[in-house]
Specification:
By secondary structure, the protein is mostly helical. 46% of the residues lie in helices and 5% in strands. The strands form two sheets. Strands 1-2 form a two-stranded antiparallel ribbon. Strands 3-4 form a two-stranded antiparallel sheet.
């Protein structure tokens, strides 16, 4: 197992109590050495409202070149190398010729990072989150706090956007009502 393979976070699902994340869920892709035998047992409720969408990967394939990852994820090769350099990506396996070989868990992590980027989370916070996951289970509280802070920021931005949308709707309706009716013969 590599450093960023699985994470044994606990989340609470409806009437299920504490459970491990489902395989392939956002947090199930980063740290190593899950010691929880119930991880992925089908009872896990992810903290997200919906499960992450699957990658369009060929069945059974678990090694991808950087160009294949670019096609799957939509990031540039430069961005992928940068993520690796700043510590946002785990150690990426290399072929015997030194070519990067990404795994399915790397694609899962990149998808999660993409969601964090959409929240507006600063790169420094994303890197910190990755560091915390690599440090192990004793960082659960700090990881949770970081994600909760991000969720509060997202909810604030959503409320601001809803207010902005209401203003736009008002203006659009104003102009639609102010338009002169076409003359009828």
């Amino acid at each position: 197992m590599t450093v960023m393979e699985t994470e044994t976070t606990r989340t609470k699902g409806p009437a299920q109590g504490a459970t491990a994340p489902t395989p392939g869920s956002a947090d199930a892709t980063l740290s190593a050495g899950s010691t929880d035998s119930s991880a992925g047992a089908g009872t896990g409720a992810d903290a997200c409202a919906s499960a992450p969408t699957a990658h369009p990967r060929p069945n059974g394939q678990d090694h991808y070149t950087i160009s294949e990852v670019v096609a799957f994820i939509g990031l540039t090769a430069h961005t992928l190398r940068w993520y690796e350099r700043i510590g946002l990506m785990p150690h990426i396996d290399r072929s015997h010729t030194g070519q990067r070989r990404y795994r399915n868990r790397d694609l899962d992590w990149l998808t999660f990072v993409g969601k964090l980027r959409l929240t507006g989370m600063p790169v420094a916070d994303m890197v910190r989150y990755a560091e915390l996951v690599r440090e192990g289970e004793h960082t659960f509280t700090e990881r949770q706090e970081l994600l909760e802070r991000t969720r509060r920021d997202v909810r604030t931005r959503i409320a601001e956007l809803q207010d902005t949308l209401a203003v736009l709707d008002y203006k659009i309706n104003f102009y639609a009502d102010a338009r002169p009716a076409p003359e009828r013969l």
